[in-house]
Specification:
Elements: H1 11-18, H2 22-25, E1 29-33, E2 38-44, H3 57-74, E3 83-93, E4 100-111, E5 115-123, E6 129-140
Antiparallel strand pairs: 1-2, 2-4, 3-6, 4-5, 5-6
Length: 142
């Protein structure tokens, strides 16, 4: 069974897209483009923690939206010059993280002509679920 991605750039190319952007400034790094998922890591450090020393919920959401937006773009037909733009995101923060690295994995729930829905699971270095997020994106024509 073929995966949902219509184009599969190298991971290095995806990471070049993050340079000079919010994800790049937070140290987010794409690590794997699988058959049906996109994965990235994000450090838990002074860039991503809130004042009380915990991973900031907004940082987790930024990781989730980065993954879903990039993955959504990869599912679109390049010939149609479409874009994928997030229109709603939610996140449940389940476990505190104070140091190390978190890993996010985005998988499609629904890939329609007008909308996409993505589930993003964020885990700590021990593989424990720290955040579960869902993002809806609109598919915008050229």
């Amino acid at each position: 069974m073929a995966g949902p991605f219509r184009h599969r750039p190298a991971v290095a190319e995806l990471n070049r897209m993050l340079v000079g952007t919010a994800p790049g400034h937070l140290g987010i790094e794409i690590t794997e483009l699988g058959e049906d998922f996109l994965r990235a890591t994000m450090p838990v450090d002074e860039r991503t923690r809130q004042p009380f020393g915990l991973l900031h919920g907004g940082s987790s959401v930024l990781l989730a939206e980065t993954l879903a937006s990039l993955a959504g773009y990869l599912c679109l037909d390049p010939a149609l010059k479409q874009q994928s733009a997030g229109i709603e995101i939610n996140a449940n923060h389940l476990r505190a993280v104070t140091e190390g690295v978190v890993t996010g994995t985005a998988r499609p729930v629904h890939l329609g002509r007008a909308t996409q829905v993505w589930e993003i699971r964020i885990e700590d270095a021990q593989g424990r679920l720290t955040c579960i997020s869902r993002m809806t994106a609109a598919v915008i024509g050229a």
